[in-house]
Amino acid sequence: MNARSQVFELSVEGRQIEEAILSIFHSILLHRTSGKFNYKREGSYSIGTVGMVDVDCDFVNSTFVRVDSDDLHRALKRQVAEFRESLKSPEGLRSGQISLEFYQKKKARWPFGMENIPWEIWTVKLNVVTLANEHERQICREKVGEALAEKIICIAGVMNRPEYVPKCQINRTLQMFLM
Questions:
Q1: By C-alpha distance, which of 18, 29, 9 is closest to 58?
Q2: Can you give the pTM of this predicted structure?
Q3: Which residues form the signal peptide (predicted)?
């Protein structure tokens, strides 16, 4: 199976890295998250609701919505912080990319155990720019905010396409369907 792939490119100031990536990844996760599955009996289940939180950015003119899960937010923020730190290397690397993958676990042939088969990959490529003064920072703040708004609208459009998403698993194979 071929994974569906989306790539977003942005130019940001160093202090905007986390907010830019988090706004994109949280927007994706918001569309790919469902409530808790409550199984009543084989083949019968209900899906709970998902809470949402508005997040106002400090360094970008933007607000985004994320799933109300502190554990998910902490895990994502930790990975993004590691990526941000890798861009501050002494070699002066000022660009990089980070991906969010959705995959399905399937049984592999013997002697292998389970294999992860990605069905969707979202990549953010960043260029980190250095700005000389506050006026340039303000212009960058507005441009990045506009670019993020376009990316979030693009995400919503992609999510609404009738393309492959793994079907809902039955209770005994639920552990094979992971993000």
A1: 18
A2: 0.82
A3: none
